[in-house]
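input
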Amino acid sequence: MEKTSLIFIGLLLLFTYTQVLAQQSCKTVSDCTKMKCEILECVENKCGCANERRVGLPLTKDMRQACIDYCKLIGEVVNTWSEDLCYCRKPPM
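output
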């Protein structure tokens, strides 16, 4: 019974340790090297995985066209866009 409890606690610590690493502090995105995400971000001095569906675009004159180009690049279509955010979705089959 004690061995089972120790194994359970060990596994619990192992799986929560990666979540603790995900909340490491940062000043820039380059400080978030331990995380395994496609797109890393540093928000409010904490590392995190960026939502691939919501992407901040650089400020340009034609934000709509930039959003369309970005969604085409990742093989999706534009769902909606605003002044600085672009939301993409999978195209209908």
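quick obs: The first strand starts at residue 40 and ends at 43.
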